[in-house]
Amino acid sequence: MRYDSVTEVIGDTPLLRIDPAVHGLGHIDLYAKLELLNPFGSVKDRAAWNMVRSGLPDAVERGSQVVELSSGNTAKALALIASMHGLGFKSVTNRMRVPEIKELLLLLGAEIEELPGRTECLDPTDPEDPLTRFHQALSEPGGEYLHTDQYYNELNAAAHESGTGPEIVRDLDGRAPDVFIACVGTAGSSTGVARVLRRHRPGVEVVGLVAHKSDFVPGIRNIDEVQEVGLFAPGLYDTIDTVTSAEAIDGMLGLIRRSGVLSGPTGGAAYFGALRHLRRLDAELDARGGERRTAVFIVCDRVESYLGYLRKRRPELFGATASAGALDALTDAEVEAAAVVDVAEARRWIATGAPLVVDLRSPFAYAALHIEGSVNIVDELFEELVRDALPFSKSRPVLLACPVGEKSARYAALLTRLGHPDARSLAGGIVAWRDAGAELVRE
Length: 443
Ligand SMILES: Cc1ncc(COP(=O)(O)O)c(C=O)c1O
What we know:
The chain is of the alpha/beta class. Helix content is 40%, strand content 15%. Strands 1-2-10-7-8-9 form a six-stranded mixed sheet, with helices on both faces. The structure holds pyridoxal-5'-phosphate. Residues 42-44, 72-74, 183-190, 219-220, 264, 266, 300-301 line the site of pyridoxal-5'-phosphate (PLP). Pyridoxal-5'-phosphate binds at residues 42-44, 72-74, 183-190, 219-220, 264, 266, 300-301.
């Protein structure tokens, strides 16, 4: 195999049959599409190259910067393609939550601009989501950027319609599988592949997987966020299932340790979601006398960039003991039992009881507007701080505030678990505080 450019190496990835002795399905052949073997490391190599290639000659002539709203694999592929062509790349995102990917992007020469999301940033003179406004500015004609626009760009799905989908059909001897399972981020890969499979087998069952509400599986959206994606067409999927980060990690460990596939968390989510879905089908097939079916899922990327994410959620995998202060160790009952105060009560409490008010939003959002006298400890840092012990005196009550009151309830439960006698969460968060007309100050 000889190539003249690394971009020629994109695509044509293997379709690996998972050993039935490993997956345990009696009547289903299960295949993994190994997108992690793309040259820049993920399924997004295809989309990135397809979206950017036609604009490159003009961008090179004008010296434009390539820009994308991505904090992960698309950014990685675009950063490499841009620098190969002598262009800069800028990644514009909400807070980057996987530190290794941020570091890798910087290593690749990317510029990173982190903006707060709408619920975080409450500047009344700036009512729109900064990210949305940035998106609009980028798309203005004649701009100085080559904006690939992955959440809306049809070329994203088209990359999979011309590549990933046909490759699957080819490797299954010209037939589409009966079931196709994929995680949904921009929806490009699931949309493009599903279109092709439907042409070959109109009855193919398409299962889209998203992260469980308020959970985080890097690379895919949660059930609320996915509605905002321009390419997402709910009618395309027969089923949308959710996976938790714990399930994604279990699936990932299964793929790594039993099948030798160095998958990242979303490949694990797809494997876990596939097995959960297919076990029901397998039981039906068994009852019907053993017809066979074929299913395919996508392994999007590799594990190495997620070691910090994994260490935080499963410290025992790294020889460390799980600490009582790990957010994931909280039970639903503990979170439900967390003390919550509404805005009116919180205002009275601040006026009389002088709790320490901890604002868990990003420094950018905090600087824009915050409750007077509050301190800013961004949520990830807060989680680190409380991992082993209480960072505050038990004698001082604590009021926790986040954008909408969900995270702060979890942290209030965590402080309670660690023995704090009076930790409460602001119901509805800073958004509710603002909506109630309560005072916010600017730094
Ligand atoms: C790791 C990972 N898995 C899955 C996906 C989902 O792919 P798509 O954007 O095609 O829906 C992405 C997208 O960024 C990703 O980075």
